[in-house]
Every structure is written in structure tokens, then in C-alpha cells.
Specification:
By secondary structure, this protein is mostly beta strands. The protein has helices spanning 3-23, 113-118, 145-150, and strands at residues 36-38, 44-51, 54-60, 78-83, 94-95, 125-131, 137-142, 155-160, 176-178, 191-196, 199-204, 209-214, 221-234, 238-241, 246-250, 256-262, 283-289, 297-303, 310-317, 320-327, 338-343. The strands form five sheets. The protein has a five-stranded antiparallel sheet, with no helix packed on it.
Length: 352
């Protein structure tokens, strides 16, 4: 064997090792999260919480027959499902409280939640589950009839036995029902509650997005915040109120990003339905802020992609944030509408 041949043979393992090193991505380059499509669950305008090793999916149910704005319809309740992964499989639904239970705190005290949420077809929506730093679980939701019939804010907060309920004063333990005192978010509309450590704030959407800080117990407002801070300009330079979905999360660089449905309208969807004000598409408007309580800067449209649905809220699992998009189907009863969980890392959203 010649010296040249021996040198070639010696170089082979070195080259193989070098190529192998080039083929392996660095450990920090984790693949970005992918969109998740959930169909056939009858869970809507909700959110996802991960506690320990279990995922909890919360949403408003429609299968019992609820029809928005139809008098004497039925309130089907808020349900929770459990899974070991965001993609499922998800367990059978379990109601967080019975529609037949009594509202023992609001202006319709003594009436059932079915009355409060369904007697005029106004509904109850936006179940938001939170775990307070002291370990107490809280369920926030809105009941629009309180505003239209009694001219008070539409929101409620319940103490829950755990992340899977039950919730309300009949739950025992931490169970209670409370009508929050709010000054800025004293209306109706879709909402979310955002938290950072022991601090919390409610984002509400009626007549433009507003924000109000919550007290230490996360059950009442403090009166501190900003009213009607977000709007979107569309041709011909018309300011359209933001609504029907709002949420926020904190990016890794510390910036807070708020996302909302633009324009605001009930059961809006993107193509092929185009059920919006003026027939235009639904998009995700957004605003940014250096802190959870602002000041917020409206930044236009987050993505030109429509995702065939309507932005509802943002939730965070570990370091990954997702936008909940309800894919409304345009029917009187939306029980079959699917959910798209769009990663917030995509810019613009892929929607493929």
C-alpha cells in the first residue's frame, strides 16, 4: 500500500464524521410548533391550559341545541376535555357546572344559568381557566344578558375544585360564584385574562379593546388601565371597533403581543364564508406593549393569511404560544365548527 492510499483511507472516517456533524442541527434549534386542527369536539371560543403533564381544553358547547339570539334556546354549558398531548386524543367532555345550577350572585340571582345564558338567546361564552399563585383555580366567563337587561358588566368568576372542575358555589372547597366589580371593562364583549406572576388583567373588547388590572385575588378590577385603546383603520379610513376575540402573550424578548379579531362581528369567518362587516375577510389585528399593562401600540394586521376562521384568544404552553381560531361554519348551530391552534411563531401565519 502506498503512502498516498493510506492517507486516503485515513481521511475517510474524518470526512464521515465531519459530514455527520453538519447533518445534525444544533440542540438549540428545536423545530417550530405546527398548527393543530381539532374537529368534532364541540368546543368553541375557549382556551387550553397545561397543568403538570395533562392538557385541559375548555370551550362552549352547542350540541344540546344552543342558537345565538334565538329566544328560549338552551345553554349547553362549558365543558373541559383532557389529553396527554395538544393533538389529543381528547377525553369525553365534562361540564364545569350544570346549566340547571342557580346563579346565586348576579342580577338574576335565584335563576338558573340556563335562564341567564339562554332565555333571550344572548348566550354565555369565553370560558377562561386560571390558576392563581396560591393554587386556587378560577373560571371567568361572560353572560351578555347582564349588560342588555340590567346594564351591568357581563362577567362572572367562579372558584373551582381543580382544573377539571366542578366550579361555582356548589363545588365545595374553593367553590364560589362572584360578580366582579369592574370600572373600565364595565360592559359586554369577548375577553381574556392575562397574568404575569401574581399580577393579572382583563382584556375586554366591546367598543374597542380595553384593559383593566385585577386585584390580588384576581376576582375584581382595580379601576387602573386603558379604555378603548385599539382600533383598526380600513378603507375608506373607517375606524371599525375591535371585538369578538382578544388575547395576549409575552414573547421571549419581553414584548407583549395582543391579538384580536379584525373587524369585530359575531361568528365571523374568513374565506369561503366572508361573513363580516362589508363582506371583507376576517384578519388578526395586533398591538404590542413593553409590559402587560401597556402602553399598547396598534400595529395593524398580524398576517394577511385568514386561516379560514376567527381569532379568539392566545394561550401559552411552555414557551410556545398559540392563537385559538374558531372555524365557524355559518350554520345557526355551530356545534360542528372546528378549531385551529395557530403557532404565534409564524410570521406571517401559514394557514396551510
Amino acid at each position: 500500500m502506498t503512502v498516498r492510499s493510506a492517507a486516503k483511507i485515513a481521511l475517510v472516517p474524518v470526512l464521515v464524521l465531519a459530514l455527520a456533524c453538519l447533518a445534525v442541527p444544533p440542540a438549540s434549534a428545536a423545530p417550530p410548533p405546527k398548527p393543530v386542527i381539532l374537529s368534532g369536539l364541540d368546543e368553541h371560543d375557549g382556551t387550553v391550559v397545561k397543568y403538570r403533564s395533562t392538557f385541559y381544553l375548555y370551550g362552549t358547547e352547542y350540541k344540546c341545541g344552543f342558537t345565538w339570539l334565538k329566544a328560549r334556546t338552551r345553554f349547553c354549558g362549558f365543558a373541559v376535555r383532557k389529553a396527554r398531548a395538544l393533538t389529543g386524543p381528547w377525553s369525553a367532555p365534562r361540564l364545569l357546572f350544570s346549566p340547571k345550577a342557580l346563579d346565586n350572585w348576579g342580577p338574576d340571582k335565584g335563576r338558573t344559568w340556563n335562564w341567564v345564558c339562554a332565555s333571550t338567546g344572548a348566550g354565555c361564552f369565553n370560558p377562561r381557566m386560571l390558576r392563581r399563585p396560591d393554587g386556587v383555580w378560577l373560571l371567568w366567563f361572560n353572560a351578555p344578558r347582564d349588560t342588555s337587561a340590567h346594564h351591568v358588566n357581563a362577567y362572572y368568576v367562579m372558584g373551582c375544585h381543580g382544573p377539571a372542575g366542578p366550579c361555582g358555589y356548589q363545588a365545595g372547597g374553593h367553590g364560589f360564584t362572584h360578580k366582579p366589580a369592574l370600572k373600565i371593562c364595565a360592559y359586554n364583549g369577548d375577553f381574556s385574562v392575562i397574568t404575569q406572576g401574581s399580577a393579572a388583567a382583563i382584556l375586554c373588547s366591546m367598543g374597542g379593546v380595553s384593559e383593566e388590572s385585577l386585584n390580588q385575588s384576581w376576582t375584581d378590577g382595580t379601576g387602573a388601565g386603558t379604555k378603548a385603546m385599539a382600533g383598526i383603520t380600513q378603507p375608506p379610513a373607517t375606524i371599525i371597533p375591535v371585538g369578538e376575540g382578544v388575547g395576549a402573550y409575552q414573547r421571549s424578548d419581553g414584548t407583549w403581543v395582543m391579538v384580536y379579531s379584525s373587524p369585530g362581528c359575531g361568528y365571523c369567518s374568513g374565506p369561503p364564508l366572508l361573513k363580516t362587516v362589508g363582506g371583507g375577510p376576517v384578519r388578526a389585528g395586533y398591538a404590542t406593549a413593553p409590559s402587560m399593562t401597556g402602553p399598547w401600540t396598534v400595529s395593524g394586521v398580524l398576517s394577511a393569511a385568514y386561516c379560514r376562521g376567527q381569532p379568539r384568544t392566545v394561550f401559552t404552553i411552555g414557551r410556545a404560544a398559540y392563537e385559538w381560531v374558531d372555524r365557524w361554519d355559518g350554520l345557526a348551530n355551530e356545534s360542528k365548527a372546528a378549531i385551529r391552534l395557530e403557532p404565534m411563531t409564524a410570521d406571517p401565519w401559514s394557514c396551510q
